[in-house]
Amino acid sequence: MNLFDPRAFSHKGVVYLTSISHLRLATSDDGRHFTVAATPTLVPSEPHETYGIEDPRITFIDGFYYVNYSAISAQMGVVTCLARTRDFASFEKLGIIFAPDNKDVALFPERIDGRYWCFHRPSVKQLGSVAMWIASSDNLLDWGRHRFLIGPRKGLWDSERVGCGAQPIKTPQGWLQLYHASDEKVRYCSGALLLDLKEPWKVLARSKEPILFAEAPYEKEGMMPNVIFHNGLVDRGNGQIDLYYGAADELTCGATMDVQAVLNSLV
Amino acid sequence: MNLFDPRAFSHKGVVYLTSISHLRLATSDDGRHFTVAATPTLVPSEPHETYGIEDPRITFIDGFYYVNYSAISAQMGVVTCLARTRDFASFEKLGIIFAPDNKDVALFPERIDGRYWCFHRPSVKQLGSVAMWIASSDNLLDWGRHRFLIGPRKGLWDSERVGCGAQPIKTPQGWLQLYHASDEKVRYCSGALLLDLKEPWKVLARSKEPILFAEAPYEKEGMMPNVIFHNGLVDRGNGQIDLYYGAADELTCGATMDVQAVLNSLV
């Protein structure tokens, strides 16, 4: 939940929401035209989900679509949960995989050195920065071997905070991750990160300029102006990626991305 | 690191330390008279330890003494690390087990339902409280199945923040954990928590009054007045516990505790 969200207001120190976030299925044959389900698909049901669930990332692993999402509650803050489905009709909730405050988790689509991997974005108070970490797991539920991956860079487009986007894409050059970042003006963009294929905690390259940023009027204006935030992608398999992102926290938009062009931009 | 610590000072927004915390072995035949090693025993060596390591908890499991501790750095904030030793002469560092900010971790001395267990104390920003969580693991390195355990209670001695003390003690009535807490006046005390033996995320009882609190002049005055913070205990096996705690962040003190008396206080 964003406390600056007009859906939220506070009275005598208590936060009230005028709506509760949930996840709803949108289906499409071409990735361009979508039908949004008439009713919610995945809804808050647990004590740690009382203020809503949001920002899902989906990774297909071993026959399941794993959906991780942020769950918010007054008691526990912001945690990351995992659920899985085979058909997007019935879901199995697997509980909290990262304790508060932790969000912006994306699972890698395959094992590396026998382990599952993910990005995550823990929270710090006095020291440290809003940074991307990488962790691994034997079972997708217990996570460890935490390593600091990247932090903000002063003076650049990602100077204030960084966090993962959708699942990383495997390329011959390395794992390609489109991550999001904001600067001190709360401008959110996406740029690329290239990680070693076998040792994914090793950063090979990182965008000096953002790749996806607010340009259209509906991106530059609105509830959260100049905020581009992508959570989903579909790898077309022909070197083209369909990216899905939120614009100004109001709309869901699509973009296409040429993988080789992004890799070339990192040289 | 405590930024209010006189060892720390800041200049133009940068924190400087006049000393770096480390762990040093103290040995004793009777638990009362100690010889402190002339040189540091466990010292910062990793990028996440550059500002020091502190607040160790030690649990004996499967032939090893597992030492978990807080590690602090400007880049990463406060993480919890794990090390192990058989002899307190050589240590094996096992890396970060909880990403930032997370401290106040204590391992249970035995498996429950085939899994290892621990308390931990993650950090929240806008929502939630400074609360104790419980997690479990197959291997002591990857942690999951996170559950909220207890939070602060308004109007009581633990109104502001809570975190574990040393390893929990197994009693016929349940797992007995002496936890620390502070109120809004930054008075730190210890009280008891009784957890179900087989389902340790279930709280059976909790102290309404603190059990260990500042009384002596050296506890009520000093660098951090009225701060009692216990990290270590030795179970004598005869119903008596030796507790070791920091007083006013200046001294290390000892106390004895009668297990049955504490259990009776919880009824």
- CATH level 1 name of chain A: Mainly Beta
Question: Averaged pLDDT of chain A, please?
Answer: 94
Biggest β-sheet description of chain A: 5 strands, antiparallel
What is the H/E order of chain A?
EEEEEEEEEEEEEEEEEHEEEH
CA-atom Rg of chain A in angstroms: 18 Å
The oligomeric status of these chains comes to homodimer
Strand content of chain A: over 45%
When the domains of chain A are counted, the total is: 1
Computed structural class of chain A:
mainly beta
Q: Tally the helices of chain A: what do you get?
A: 2
Shape summary of chain A? globular
**Which residues of chain A sit in consecutive blocks of at least 5 with pLDDT less than 50?**
none
Per CATH, the architecture of chain A is: 5 Propeller
Helix content of chain A: under 10%
Structure summary, number of beta strands of chain A = 20
Quick one: CATH superfamily of chain A? Glycosyl hydrolase domain, family 43
Q: Which protein chains make the most extensive interface, counting residues with beta carbons within 8 Å of the other chain's beta carbons?
A: A-B, 47 and 47 residues
Cα separation of the termini of chain A: 37 Å
Can you tell me the CATH topology of chain A? Tachylectin-2, Chain A
Write the layout of secondary structure elements.
The structure is a homodimer of 267-residue chains.
Chain A: E1 8-11, E2 14-17, E3 26-27, E4 35-36, E5 53-61, E6 64-73, E7 77-85, E8 92-98, E9 102-107, E10 116-122, E11 132-137, E12 144-150, E13 161-164, E14 169-171, E15 174-182, E16 188-195, E17 203-206, H1 217-220, E18 228-235, E19 240-247, E20 251-258, H2 259-265
Antiparallel strand pairs in A: 1-2, 3-4, 5-6, 6-7, 7-8, 9-10, 10-11, 11-12, 13-15, 14-15, 15-16, 16-17, 18-19, 19-20
